[in-house]
Design goal:
The chain is α/β, with parallel strands linked by helices and 450 residues long. The protein is built from 18 helices and 12 strands.
Length: 450
């Protein structure tokens, strides 16, 4: 019988997948926690915290290691590099784990993975770090200091500092490193927010109502979503507050025909189906069988009948859909720089050149999907990034190229706490650390009747 992997072996496996094999951390971690459901809550919590924490602080961790190791981090063998990284995270950020235990477990893990000849190196580096952590010398230059302190690549900081003050950028960075509770949206077609709150309480889950929306909650105190009866019954959806705000800004009328062109995993589509009160229709599209499968799974769990799921490439025109939709939702592929607090490894995987590539892809999709909007209808353009090239620059491009569309001012569609986030042009721009939300952008275009 194969001996079960230890917590630290599991962490190492995830870190190797993410840093050496280009797997996204939320996918790798989700797959592992699903596979090892027999682990108790404490073990699952340790694996999650060390994995996410190591990735979140990786630039700082590498900076520290390079001060104490003669072999620089990028020259180390990948297994040793990731053993040391997770150990330094524990030494610096986890007071509950004794330094001696961190060092000893790292040495054991190196031996177990076939690197017994390097156990002295691992032990020496880590004990040196543990003894002299308070003596680490950090950069003095402001941008480099922010890069190391918050483990953010310098090119991203340069990008943001072109648009935001250094104080605002630091607020964004600090917010990314705060623990993020899971946000959920009540399925109001099935249960009231108050009733859902009571159901969650009965399941031992703490639910705190979000101040932006009456049907949104932050939840803590649960172990595994799939074990929650209220989740299995489709009484709520896991959805970020910024994504829910799309539904508020869409503000559909009963009977509307809605087309969501990049819908996976289906949160916005299902939210809009809920708002239609059983009337109208939402068609949720995405590119691959995998993505449409995710949408279908969520639609089935939430039990909505006024949604259909279609596999379609948003860059390819669908003549049958021209002039057919009251509302088109274009939540487009982007760099994801607004959600780094939840998908921290994106900052290491995204390259500067991709910003313009993604901006170009967004233009290509908008060029196609604007044709689906009926005269007098609405096109929603949204992204989960705070990069101007993927937001306002594309808004200006779109308005100049397609004068039959104008911008609706959405100030009347957001709560009082978000009035300051509406730009002069009438778009919604949310910044982490400034608002209680991920970074997000929403523009609402209206097509003329002529």
């Amino acid at each position: 019988m194969t001996k079960p992997l230890s917590e630290r072996e599991i962490v190492l496996g995830i870190l190797m997948d993410v840093t050496e094999h280009d797997v996204y951390s939320h996918i790798a971690l989700g797959n592992v926690l699903s596979k090892y459901q027999y682990l108790d809550k404490k073990e699952r919590s340790f694996i999650t915290r060390v994995t996410e924490g190591t990735l979140e602080h990786m630039i700082e961790i590498d900076y520290i290691l390079n001060q104490f190791s003669k072999v620089k981090v990028q020259k180390m063998k990948p297994v040793i590099r990731n053993i040391l990284r997770s150990a330094v995270y524990q030494l610096k950020y986890m007071d509950s784990v004794p330094d001696s235990a961190v060092c000893n477990e790292a040495v054991k893990l190196a031996v177990k993975k076939g690197f017994g000849t390097l156990k002295g190196f691992v032990n020496g580096v880590l004990r040196n770090v543990a003894r002299k952590m308070d003596e680490v010398s950090y950069p003095k230059e402001p941008v480099e200091a922010l890069s190391v302190k918050y483990s953010m690549p310098g090119w991203i900081l340069d990008l943001w500092l072109e648009e935001y003050s250094i104080d605002t950028v630091e607020k964004i960075l600090a917010d990314f490193q705060k623990e993020k509770p899971v946000t959920i949206r009540c399925n109001t077609s099935r249960i009231s927010p108050e009733e859902l709150e009571e159901r969650l309480k009965a399941e031992g889950v703490t639910a705190v109502k979000h101040k932006y929306l009456p049907y949104a909650y932050s939840i803590t105190g649960y172990d595994y979503l799939g074990e929650m009866e209220s989740f299995r019954q489709g009484l709520f959806a896991v959805q970020d507050i910024s994504s829910m705000l799309v539904g508020e800004i869409v503000s559909p009328k009963e009977g509307d025909n809605i087309l969501d062109v990049c819908a996976a995993p289906g949160g916005k589509s299902i939210h809009l189906a809920d708002k239609l009160n059983g009337t109208g229709h939402v068609e949720a599209r995405d590119l691959t069988t995998y993505k449409t499968g995710l949408i279908q799974e969520n639609v089935g769990r939430m039990q909505f009948g006024n949604i259909s799921v279609v596999q379609w490439d948003a860059t390819v025109p669908d003549e049958a859909a021209f002039d057919s939709a009251d509302i088109v939702i274009a939540d487009l592929p982007c760099s994801g720089l607004g959600v780094l607090g939840r998908k921290t490894d994106l900052k290491y995987k995204t390259m500067k050149e991709q910003i313009q590539e993604l901006s170009g892809l967004q233009k290509k999709i908008l060029d196609v999907v604007r044709r689906y909007v009926k005269p007098g209808g609405v096109l929603i353009y949204s992204t989960c990034t705070i990069s101007r090239a993927e937001n306002m620059d594309n808004v200006h491009w779109f308005l100049e190229k397609y004068p039959e569309f104008t911008l609706d001012n959405i100030e009347d569609k957001v709560c009082s706490e978000l009035k300051d986030s509406v730009t002069e042009q009438g778009c919604l721009r949310l910044l982490p650390g400034v608002h209680e939300s991920d970074g997000f952008f929403i523009a609402r275009f209206r097509r003329s009747l002529e």
